[in-house]
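Budget justification note: compute hours in this period were largely spent on complex prediction jobs such as the one shown. Inputs:
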Amino acid sequence: MPSTVPSGALPAPQRLPQLRTMLRIRRFEEALIDLAQAHDVGHFHVYIGQEATGVPALALLEDGDVAYSTHRNHGHLLARGVDPNAMLAEILGRATGTNGGKGGTLHLASPAHGFPTTSASVGGPLPIAVGSAFAFRELGRDRVSVALFGDGALEEGAWHEAANIAALRQLPVVFLCENNSVGAVTQQAGDYPSSTLAVGTLADLARPFGIPAAVIDGSDSDAVHAAMSDALVRARSGDGPSFIEARTVRWPGNQGIWAELVTGRVQVHYGWDAATIPDPHRAWFAEHDPVVRAVREALAAGAGRDAIAAIDADATREMAAAVAFALASPWPDADEAFANLYADPRVNALATGRRAAK
Amino acid sequence: MTATEIRMVDAIREAMRAELAADPSVVLLGEDVSVGGPFGATKGLQDEFGAARIRDTPISEAAVMGLAVGAAAAGLRPIVEIMFMDFATLALDQLVNHAAKLRYMSGGQLSIPLTVRMQAGASGAFGAHHSQSLEAWLAHVPGLKVVAASTPADAYGLLRAAIRDPDPVVVIEHRALYWGRGPVETGEAAIVPLASAVVRRPGIDATIVSWSRMTVTALAAADLLAAEGIQAEVIDLRGLQPMDTATVLASVRRTGRAVVAHEAVGFGGLGAEVAARIGEDAFDALRAPVERVAAPFTPVPAAPDLERAFVPDAAAIAAAVRRTLARPDPRRRSLEEGR
Amino acid sequence: MLDAETPGALPRDPAGALALLERMQLLRAFEEKVAELYASGQVAGLVHLAIGQEATAVGVCGLLRPGDTVYGGHRSHGHALATGADPERLLAEIAGRVSGYARGKGGSMHLVAADTGFVTATGVVAGNISLALGGAFAAQLRGTGGVAVAFFGDGAGQSGQFHESLNLAALWRLPVLFVCENNGYAEFSPLSAHTGVERLATHAATYGIPAVTVDGNDLGAVREAAAVAIQRARRGEGPSFVECLTYRLRGHYEGDPAKYRDRAELAAWRAKDPIERLAGRLADAGLVDAEAAADANRRARAIIAAAADAVLASGPAPAGDLTTDVTA
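Corresponding output:
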């Protein structure tokens, strides 16, 4: 444990709130995996293992900034304060969901929290995020647009086109790549770290455009905080886009097509009593789990074990209540399927042949 | 060879296996095909045929499709797997502007023997980016061929025909049918010509035309109707471009009534094409207007309930058939009026 | 520079040197004829000429062998000719005549001369790059030693397909040569309006693809760079990228007044005319004197004149062809 925190690191009093957000995300995703055993959730992706990237990065955004996320979006929305009740309800397709049940897990959105839309098309958010940055600049708003994406998005041509325009116009956008493929050995090929990108590091893809790029440990919340702070300063000063590659070791439960709680639930006491970590996944919890690391960091910053256990208990209770809320929520009215295709209800009715509900 | 009961997803794999074994110029390209992709359709093929021919690709639909077109022009027979038909949007330049047109633009100098497998359809609450049925877009492009199977046997037979075809063929596979079992014969005799509609269930009162998953739904509708004494004939179109309209017209000339059912949205859908063909070529036989049953004109919603409301069901198809039967027979009416 | 030991070096024998000069003269004569026929209404449509860029086409294609394949774009008359395609059938195709390579169905932007390995051109910027990957993939799988060449302009470098294709070629070590003809303008605006990246070869380095930027109006420089790249591909060492700095002396398409360029710039590039430069260099080396060069030019013009006469005597594309060749 370093005795001095790096510059730009989080002040000690903010450690506990940061841990709280990370725990809320973790308990949400664990609850979802359980819920999917018994209910028709459809295919979904969880953010477990990447909490130390999204939480500190998004905490730095201000009102009016926007972020565009991916199929793995739950953690991002929770980090910016979206109501877990509405998120779980959306994932279950209920009327009380963030999108009224029409979006589902892949498309969670909450414009009020700076998530205009979530695209499940890999690479899809990149040009859209650049477009919002362009609008902010044209409208003279001091706002930043963040593109959140995985390593796979860089294989799409959309990345190249978006990066070129962002750099050419020096737009206020941050490309935050969450590379969760580190250690996924099946991904390696030839001389490359990935079977699908012929580059030394993902950040190399940003450099030809002159976009400043940082490669950081995505499970190190201080590194994320520092890199994101730099990127936001650059964007807000009119100095154009930045690229951050935040590397995380993939959670063992994310190795298959469906997320599975193969590690069991995380216990906060892993942070102060590593001996209690069960064997099969000891290495992941001890070395890579950002939540366990955040527990250790909170302790080092002076938080007590009881306080940590208390916020964990709160988070667990909150997510249990969210599950109950979602399950008790009504299904959307069938007419809702016909609403909001076009702005004008008359046009909407003409096109769908149905009058919208209400 | 006797037929064995296998799942459609396995029939698809067997078809690829047979063509890969028969012709060294057949190659398979797609995201994660080495491990079988999300549905296991390609599982084991890399072990059998090697990493040179069974290739994992980056998530670069445009370049992968272009590469496949170029490889086809150079004499290979590539199969491209598009994991979700929704992502064909990213490869449309290569599919529409190049694959479809190179034979024509070259005056016959080039041949593009390309097969593009696209998994499609609304099921499992996958939401608006993983559920669309876009066959009408593709069938609208001169130079492309489009097929869709409703049974494991057809999935096998059509795919083998597609791989052997000298032109680009889009093979649409419905996710909801992947795990359904059916008898599948293997071997040359099981190959299904691309433009060959088939009567799945004979009937005399009305004709239901459908394809892909809607054929299964149409057969269920025919069961419902049979309980009421209505004998509906169910035609599985199989080939969407080119389309075997002769089989459809022959049926409608016998029944005098037609319902077209598809999962894609109705506006501009292929149901309109089928209805227009019937109107043009079998108008005299019609005793009622052709009915269309299709998804409402909306994106595919995620909520399971809304998704169920989106996909036409057997009751909707049966109701459309009843509407055609409830119409007064125009020929009889004109006879009566003339009396 | 005239060193036979250097791969791709200009030939030391007069006949070999003259053949290259004459091929460039043929391209120039062909394109000028197209301009003339367009002006007189004998050629319709959207016609993009590469007058001034002859050294890239001849420089690269002159090194290819049977079994290699070439993929062009909208400005590719010269690329097709440089592979040895029949000027009369090409001109007929551009003029929409029955005697064209595709009996008039392809036209200027979609030339195909399968007999000489010119697989296709495309009207979609960057659309041909991945097609070339396919040719390279087929050659790799079959172990033919064949090489695929994609010619594209600087405007293609900003396309997603460019990124996807370079990545895929590097990943699979495909025997492909990316030839970027950087003529400084993408359609009607300078490259600087399209990207902050000054040299497109920079992108290639990202994927570890060997890349070089050369004077695209210097036939020798283009040949030497291409020869190294082609050797590398044939040895199974994967793709290469050659960026050729050049200039189109005409507008984006015939009829484009090109007011976005200033006279001084045009004059400077006229002074760097690749054909005159080669002729001067061959004369200096004592290989081809002015008279022989002029004779060659007359021969090239005679070939094109005869081709044009034949094309104009040829019938239009027959209506009966309208619905043929849609499918096999």
